Amino acid sequence: MPGGILFGQGLQRLLSWLATGLAAEMAAFELALVVPVFLGLGVIAYFAAPEEPGLVVPMFLTVGAACLAYGVRGRWWLHVGLICLTAAGAGFCAAKLRTLSVAAPQLSRSMAGTVTGLVLSVEPRLGGSARIVIRPVSVEKLEPAAMPGRIRLTVRKGSEIQAGDSISLKAVMRPPPPPALPGGYDFARDAFFDGIGGVGFAAGKISPAASPVEASWAEALNIWIDRQRNDLTRRIVETIQGENGAIAASQVTGKRGQIPGDANDALRASGLYHVVSISGLHMALFAGGLFGLIRAVLALSRRIVLYRGTKELAALLSLLPAAAYTLFSGAEVATVRSFLMTSIVLLAVTLGRNAITRRNVALAASFVLVTTPEQLLGPSFQMSFAAVAMLVTAHEQWSRRKREKSAMAWERAIGGAVTVVLAMMLTTIVASLATAPFSAFHFHRLTLQSLASNLVATPIVSFLIMPLAMLALVAEPFGYGAPLWQAMGWAVGLFMQVARSVATWPGSDLVLPQFSAAALGLFALALVLLTILRTRLALLALVPLGGGVALAATAPLPAALYGANGYAALVRQGDRLTMLAQRSDAFTVQQWLLAMGDRRKPEDPSLASQRLCDSEGCSAPIEGGGVFMLDKTSNAAEEDCGRVSVLAGPIPIGSRCAATGIVMDRDLIRSAGSIALYAEPPPSGDIGPRWRLVMARDPQASRPWAPGRVTPPPKSPPQPALQAPAGDSPLDSIAPETDN
Q1: Which of 339, 328, 401, 331 is nearest to 367 (CA)?
Q2: Across 140-149, 411-420, 658-667, which has the greatest mean pLDDT?
Q3: Which of 699, 559, 581 is nearest to 632 (CA)?
Q4: CA 186 to chain centre
Q5: Cα 436 from Cα 453, distance rounded (Å)
Q6: Which of 425, 318, 358 is nearest to 32 (CA)?
Q7: For residue 80, which of 534, 555, 532 has the smallest C-alpha distance?
Q8: Range with lowest mean pLDDT among 313-327, 401-415, 565-579
Q9: Which of 8, 165, 391, 691 has a CA between 20 and 30 Å from the CA of residue 126?
Q10: For the region Disordered, what residue ranges are annotated (predicted)?
Q11: What average pLDDT does this structure show over 268-282?
């Protein structure tokens, strides 16, 4: 039987290849690379729990696993396994401790009232409005024990407010909103860890508080920094007019609120949005430029050159300015993480160690997961560390090449130029591929032309924008900053020409439907294997990669998405989508359209072609041949009961209707946040689809950022969902990064 013999020989060769590779991997194994993976698994286990876990038992088991690991150091497999278990327990406990450390009251319902407090920060917005964060000392209709620690409000144009002001104003507020769709970005969770217990907008005149609110020393420092950032932002925007000024200011101060929407769209479509978020690229250029400058100055001293070493001392002296840049740019999550990674590299240079290693990436990731574990769930952490890990892995492979030195100077010059171009291309390709799954999952977009845009734009940022920004910052206190700011604005104009040109190319970005977290997990596993494995066993990453692609490609589309406090829905029938929403729900509908793989805007008239509305509700055909009815009044719901496939509305709907079809009423949507409705094939003999509901939150679960019990509002006619003024999107603060 030749076939059987060939199969046996192939299997034997495969097992031999696996055994050889495993032996090589064990010889080169670094436990430090595995620790952040299991720390992350522990963090995920904490956040996935339906009820808030305790701390004593998990901490006891973690300490026990650590003691056992120490006691079995001679047994390699058992020792490594217990270390991994200890890391998972440490991640779980770190997440619990972090939750306890930031716990503060949150609003339980929408409300309006007078708020008095201290302004902690001011974010200028396009059109003259601003977004402020207040530490309240009193909130009308709330007892002090129920008062949020911080409230974020949008104020109208003309409101002259600065950080540090004590103010009193009438505000319309609500709890931080839940995810716009199941599996989407959870603004309420991020707001909880930022200490924000309510969001809304000012509804009247803003006046000084009756008595000044005293700031703590930490608040006073943050207020001073915020004022300096806003003063410099105003100076840059006044010197450089238009969108170039807003983008230039974002590079220096981190204030991105004044960038026009069309500029943001062009940057996203061209794959260059990471440039306006101060992260790895800016920190590397800033710290690297300082390192070179300080080293050049130190080289003027013979004693330092001979006895101290300029490289090590320059790396150490670069840490303080890099920390100052981090604080001055707002110390946002991405900036702090980039500073941490840069600090590890500079300390490695100071100690004479190899700076760019996978171990240093693992150390940075472990530090972030232990101190701020909630970052793991956000796109910023995932995309940053995916890009950095793969770039470092590619750098190590590149460094192993055997390069022959050319004898002629011109040959060395040409070879160096070719190497720089190839390195830039490889960097962009590797970072884009590493971050693509996370960009597709969180933002439903793939940028197909990022190689071309980054290849042209990165030199503009590296050799023009950032050097001019550094020179302008030095010259500004002496009154000579204006010419350099104007030169920086010219360079930003070149950069935006690249972004707008690439954004107009056919297929510059691809909109993808939402896929499951399981698919994202398989993509992440493939990246982990590529990062950890050093031999040809890294090819095993193709298995989870293929599984992730298969799951993402076959993900079903929901028949309807329902949310916005019960006032909006997006209904699908075949390839046609119908929007049932008000204009104030445009942000939520935009997220739904992207999750459906549709790039249209909510105001597109084709989204209303199948909609039928009257004064009491709207209807649209739904997958499976039925009707989705969104009613606004109880009388309309009673009339439509049993007549439609799906009945929904921001009103209580009686239990009698639930027996005749799918019902999604006020109580359900308030506890679930948002709902995806799937139409599945019916059992044999049944007519019509079988409906499956997927909720953004489990109504039976209870977590500090998503309490299971919903406080009923006062008895009054239902009101539309509260919306901040246009442009105040919860997603403004999470720009996608690639750290190219």
Answers
A1: 339
A2: 140-149
A3: 581
A4: 10
A5: 16
A6: 358
A7: 532
A8: 401-415
A9: 165
A10: 696-740
A11: 82
Average pLDDT, the chain: 85
CA distances (Å), origin 142, targets 111, 135, 346, 549, 719: 10, 14, 49, 50, 21
Q: In what order do the strands lie in the sheet with 690-695?
A: 576-580, 568-573, 560-563, 675-680, 690-695
Rounded to the nearest 5 percent, the helix, strand and coil shares of the chain are 55, 15, 30
| Average pLDDT, integer, range 106-117 | 92
DSSP for 229-296, please give it.
HHHHHHHHHHHS-SHHHHHHHHHHH---TTS-HHHHHHHHHHT-GGGGS-SHHHHHHHHHHHHHHHHH
Q: Which residues contact 99 (CB under 8 A, 6 or more apart)?
A: 52, 193, 704
Helices (H), 575-712: 586-595, 634-640, 655-658, 666-672
The 3-state DSSP class for residue 677 equals strand
**What is the distance between the alpha carbons of residues 703 and 706, in angstroms, rounded to a whole number?**
5
Average of pLDDT values for 120-127?
Answer: 90
Q: Has residue 722 got a pLDDT over 60? A: no
Find the mean pLDDT for residues 464-492: 93
Q: Has residue 236 got a pLDDT over 90?
A: yes
How far is C-alpha 300 from the chain's CA centre?
45
Question: What region does 193 belong to: left with phi over 0, alpha with psi -120 to 50, or beta?
Answer: alpha
Q: Give the integer Cα–Cα distance in Å for 361 and 393.
A: 10
Please name which of 443, 531, 515, 429 lies closest in space to residue 40, comparing C-alpha atoms: 531
Cα distances (Å, whole numbers) of residue 666 to 566, 630, 649, 674: 6, 12, 6, 11
Instruction: For residue 632, give the nearest of 617, 647, 612 by alpha carbon.
Output: 617
pLDDT of residue 284: 83
Length of the chain: 740
| Span 353-403, pLDDT tens digits | 887 888 889 999 999 999 999 999 999 899 989 988 998 888 887 776 655
